[in-house]
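The material for today's practical consists of a large collection of protein records. Getting from the letters to the tokens is the skill we practise here. To make this concrete, we reproduce a full record directly below:
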Amino acid sequence: MNIPHLERYEAVVLGASFGGMQLLKLLLTALPRDFSLPIIAVQHTAPTSQGTLAELLNSFCDIEVREANEKEPIEPEKVYFAPANYHLLIEPDRTFTLTVDERVNHARPAIDVLFETAAEAYGVELVGLVLTGANADGAEGLRYLKDKGGLAVVQDPDTAVAPSMPQAAIRIARPQHVLTPGQITDLLLQIHHNRQEDVT
């Protein structure tokens, strides 16, 4: 996997639905505590979920995993999850906004909402990942992210618990890369190492 200029990326956004918990655990436990850019995530959950996903993942991971808060500045070395029943938006000043606007693709939080606002805030400095899921959320958002110059990545549907979401993202967004979970992990670590080398 030869992707040029990995050191330019400033943030990662990802979306997952059915089957996401196991995959997120695999990806996030591979990251070091000082992972050099933020990861901002939507995992479709029940509206009544009260932060248990972030808390559970935080107990397994070296990197800090938490729910995003209203108006919170986005920082490296953290994984932020959208709270249950709130859309998570990224403002141009790279802070969070939470809304209870109408569902998008039958989901709140919606992956498309996160991806589209993140693409406006980060442009060519953004990586977008669409992972396992049983719907089409994230496909349009990933296309928008790619159109803004970001790096669009989709999980190989053959490796997904639910392939519908990756398949829709491939069809609609035409991502630059379709990767296995192991390759996605390698990509994230490669970005981290390239950024560290760029600083030194």
Summary: The longest helix spans residues 181-199.
